[in-house]
């Protein structure tokens, strides 16, 4: 079969919600991969973990090491996700990075293994070299004849280099392409002969006195020399998953944008693997192992873990980075306890990065960076109180109070968040510890996990029992 690798509307994918980490633009390392003392790229403290992440970054950049597992372990709100995001920002644009949360694989309409397979294959890049034939020249004239009935269009394109000039017949598709690119006489364009894709390279210098067809950002280029037809090697990187989707006949590449890819047949994947291996042999393609980040990895169950174990052995495997805040806890789907809830065989092949709690100064810095990012002006007293709250509850809770307090400040028409705004939002919104204390006190008014609720003194049964929520590491729901 012939395998397609070009996905023409690439920029539509990869919208992700990482607003909580929007202040982070890298790991904040210097040229020797040492974490900078001062906050850098939005990163504060956590030096050991950042340095370790820098080593991983180097491994990924070298491209030769794949199929490794890294576990970032540490208490909640210690920057595990933040470090993974920083790492992803530091990777070159051609290195794929995929982030999923452990619970996600249960909520898709796919089987667990299919969801994981897709995540793995999204994290493997294939860099493909292709020779294409291009027509490159300056447009002399475009002549389009529209038939009166509308439907069919015909036309001629006259195009030249400094050495020659040719006339091409135009069909419907080319006319549409020229129109949508707003190509005019005097533009220098390039046409990909196989796909018909038209790219405007700029306006010819000979037209630089031609004020009519110029915007403020018009780029001027030389009229090409020599032959109109040229050969060029273009290199593009796609993920194995994209190749899967484009070539799985029932879906086509449109499925990439709807996200509705469904299960992909294993025969399709086998064929693609064979083909890609062939291209690699022939020097036409290069495998770029990327990074798969699985946040809250303790949400996975034993079947998913053994899948990961196996997938790491695969010929095309990414570096898998996992994050967890669990200590010794049960692995879902088993009765065994193990460190971080990871089965021992997977734990054994993982290298572990520890994150630790922040000190006062670091919390203060992170909160003020967050406030800057959210364009909130904090009074020094307000910042001090938020820092104290951050130390006593969690960093995440404290940073959530920034925007809430800002709303309260705006309501009383102040541009600056003062102490009283923090105080009021602290009372309005509970942190998890106070919420737990409240629940213990008033538990009889809530639906319990057998579905009973106590309303006005008598107990009634609620239909579907809600899933048990985990309040500590041991009380995981293992029934899924
Ligand atoms: N070292 C750090 N530098 C800058 N911001 C941080 C740092 N660590 C955590 N944060 C920010 O604090 C919040 C909580 O951190 P997060 O990474 O979500 O913690 P975890 O994943 O360990 O529970 C996030 O908004 C995160 O961006
Ligand atoms: Mg996290």
From TrEMBL:
<keyword id="KW-0804">Transcription</keyword>
<dbReference type="GO" id="GO:0006281">
    <property type="term" value="P:DNA repair"/>
</dbReference>
<keyword id="KW-0067">ATP-binding</keyword>
<protein>
    <recommendedName>
        <fullName>RuvB-like helicase</fullName>
        <ecNumber>3.6.4.12</ecNumber>
    </recommendedName>
</protein>
<dbReference type="GO" id="GO:0000812">
    <property type="term" value="C:Swr1 complex"/>
</dbReference>
<keyword id="KW-0234">DNA repair</keyword>
<dbReference type="InterPro" id="IPR003593">
    <property type="entry name" value="AAA+_ATPase"/>
</dbReference>
<dbReference type="GO" id="GO:0016887">
    <property type="term" value="F:ATP hydrolysis activity"/>
</dbReference>
<dbReference type="Pfam" id="PF17856">
    <property type="entry name" value="TIP49_C"/>
</dbReference>
<keyword id="KW-0547">Nucleotide-binding</keyword>
<keyword id="KW-0347">Helicase</keyword>
<dbReference type="GO" id="GO:0043138">
    <property type="term" value="F:3'-5' DNA helicase activity"/>
</dbReference>
<comment type="similarity">
    <text>Belongs to the RuvB family.</text>
</comment>
<dbReference type="GO" id="GO:0000492">
    <property type="term" value="P:box C/D snoRNP assembly"/>
</dbReference>
<dbReference type="InterPro" id="IPR010339">
    <property type="entry name" value="TIP49_P-loop"/>
</dbReference>
<keyword id="KW-0227">DNA damage</keyword>
<keyword id="KW-0539">Nucleus</keyword>
<comment type="function">
    <text>DNA helicase participates in several chromatin remodeling complexes, including the SWR1 and the INO80 complexes.</text>
</comment>
<feature type="domain" description="AAA+ ATPase">
    <location>
        <begin position="66"/>
        <end position="357"/>
    </location>
</feature>
<dbReference type="InterPro" id="IPR027417">
    <property type="entry name" value="P-loop_NTPase"/>
</dbReference>
<keyword id="KW-0010">Activator</keyword>
<keyword id="KW-0156">Chromatin regulator</keyword>
<keyword id="KW-0805">Transcription regulation</keyword>
<dbReference type="GO" id="GO:0006364">
    <property type="term" value="P:rRNA processing"/>
</dbReference>
<dbReference type="GO" id="GO:0006338">
    <property type="term" value="P:chromatin remodeling"/>
</dbReference>
<dbReference type="InterPro" id="IPR041048">
    <property type="entry name" value="RuvB-like_C"/>
</dbReference>
<dbReference type="GO" id="GO:0043139">
    <property type="term" value="F:5'-3' DNA helicase activity"/>
</dbReference>
<dbReference type="GO" id="GO:0031011">
    <property type="term" value="C:Ino80 complex"/>
</dbReference>
<dbReference type="InterPro" id="IPR042487">
    <property type="entry name" value="RuvBL1/2_DNA/RNA_bd_dom"/>
</dbReference>
<dbReference type="InterPro" id="IPR027238">
    <property type="entry name" value="RuvB-like"/>
</dbReference>
<keyword id="KW-0378">Hydrolase</keyword>
<dbReference type="GO" id="GO:0005524">
    <property type="term" value="F:ATP binding"/>
</dbReference>
<dbReference type="GO" id="GO:0097255">
    <property type="term" value="C:R2TP complex"/>
</dbReference>
<dbReference type="Pfam" id="PF06068">
    <property type="entry name" value="TIP49"/>
</dbReference>
<dbReference type="GO" id="GO:0006357">
    <property type="term" value="P:regulation of transcription by RNA polymerase II"/>
</dbReference>
